[in-house]
Amino acid sequence: MSASRDVRRSPGRGPRRAAIGAGVALRRLIAPLCAVACLALPPLARAAALTMHDDRGRDVVLQAPAQRVVSLLPSLTESVCALGACSRLVGVDRYSNWPAAVASLPKLGGLDDAQIERIVALHPDLVLVSTSARLAERLESLGLRVLALESRNQADVKRALSTLALALGQPQAAQRVWDRVERETREAARRVPVALRGQRVYFEVDPTPFAAGDASFIGQMLRSLGMSNAVAAELGPFPKLNPEYVVRLQPDIVMAAARDLEAMPRRPGWRTLRALQQHRVCPLSDEHYELLVRPGPRLGEAAAVLADCLSAVAAVPAVNP
């Protein structure tokens, strides 16, 4: 409001008019200075900078929540969508295929052949990668913010969700997602046949063979379902095993991608595995295998797949080797 509206003038009172005039002049002088000073101050409505600590040990700073996100790892793509920010994705890796909304997004290659020029052309304010991605430093040299996350166990998955939620400006969303994972896992555990509890599972993640150890997110999922792991915990989350070691293990139940499970009897010595002879196996479809090996927000659904598999194993009639 101007001075003429702010103060009622009285004719015949010269000193007051003079004082008012001086006040108006002073305000006219100060106003532009105030405007300049105010521009230098952050407005109250502006969000504070966001700082995320990634799994390379680096701090990644965003001046505002990420609005244009490129994800180069399927589990991180799924996490962004589970946190309610699927619409912020502007590009993904070739393997990201869930949810259906990501199918129409630009596919930008994989870990070893990511299309850097196309990524830069999308003008993302955040790029999500695995810690093993070699392109991170190249992208950063081009001025992009890169957040590297790696999930080997369930604590890592929960932490990655929290980090992503912070980067997206909605930190409260992470706990809601994790609560759902835990609820679905508890429901799956109740469906596992009591007769199978404690039996030793060999879960193969790659036919070389690599297995899911007890410390991995898959091993922890099996434990939450009341099962045990045939692979020694001290071998780590995802150890590469000597094939003869697996034969000596003689696991009670074998889980693997269906195509790999079908080929197991042709591996030297593996025909002697009693689990294969007695059909105590879980042949995983491509869809279910992908679900189980992605450490993301669908871990609860993965637990349900394992519970269904174990129920089917329990229903198989005993077979003498």
Query: Low-confidence spans: pLDDT under 50, at least 5 residues?
Result: 1-45
Q: Rough shape?
A: elongated
How many beta-strand segments? 11
- CA gyration radius, whole angstroms: 29 Å
Compute the number of structural domains: 2
CATH superfamily of the largest domain, please? Nitrogenase molybdenum iron protein domain
The count of helical stretches stands at 13
Q: Strand pairing plus helix content: what structural class?
A: alpha/beta
Just name the CATH architecture of the largest domain: 3-Layer(aba) Sandwich
Mean pLDDT: 88
Distance between the termini: 94 Å
Strand content: 5-15%
Major β-sheet, in short? 5 strands, mixed
- The sequence of SSEs as H and E is HHEEEHEHEHEHHEEHEHEHHEHH
List keywords for this structure.
single chain; 321 residues; alpha/beta; Rossmann fold; 2 domains; five-stranded mixed β-sheet; four-stranded parallel β-sheet; 13 helices; 11 strands; 13% strand; elongated; disordered N terminus
